[in-house]
Each structure stands twice: as structure tokens, then as C-alpha cells.
């Protein structure tokens, strides 16, 4: 396990490690609020890269790295079986039928399972 001290080096190494083995790579985030410590770890079982900071300045950079990795992870997903087999997608038709149905309430009021707020009492 290697702690990298430079954020730029860690970000490049993390993205390269994920790109080299997307199916084996694991990304872990640890936050210790008592210490104010953030530890980021990415591994593919042979290489482990870690970054540790106590500074809140890195939170924006951390969010950008998370966004980048999540976008890469979403693009690597396999095609759904139904789409690969050529089965038509009926979810849009079902949503339109549900929206037009008079039996299902479309409002977010108490009939939809919400709780109606009580009016505050007037002070004398």
C-alpha cells in the first residue's frame, strides 16, 4: 500500500488503474469525522494506491474524481439481456398508461401516502 502525497498523481494513477482493469478494480472511501480524515483507496488486488488528507480543500477535487470514476463505471456496464435479444422496451408504454389511469393518484397530497401538516395554533 502506497500513500501518494500529490493529488494530481493520485488522480492520474487511480484513473489509469481503473482503466487497466475495470472488472477487478475496487474503490473505497473512508471518512473519520472525529479526526477529520479522508482516505481514498483504489486497488485491483495487485496494486493498491491510497491518498490521505486532513484538509477540506480536497473535497471538491474528491467530488470531481468520484464523478469521473462513476462515469467510467457506468459506460462499462454490459448491455441488458432483453436489449441484446431484441425484445422491445415496454416501460414507456406502461408509464403512459399509469399516468392516464384514474385509479392512481398523481398528486403528492395525503391520499398519496403523505402526511398532512397541522396548522400552528394562534398565540393569544
From TrEMBL:
Residues 5-73 form the SRP9 domain. InterPro entries: Signal_recog_particle_SRP9/14 (IPR009018), SRP9-like (IPR039914), SRP9_dom (IPR039432). One of its GO terms (biological process) is SRP-dependent cotranslational protein targeting to membrane. GO terms for cellular component: signal recognition particle, endoplasmic reticulum targeting. Residues 115-124 have a biased composition (Basic residues). It comes from the Eukaryota. Residues 81-124 are annotated as: Disordered. GO terms for molecular function: 7S RNA binding. This is Signal recognition particle, SRP9/SRP14 subunit.
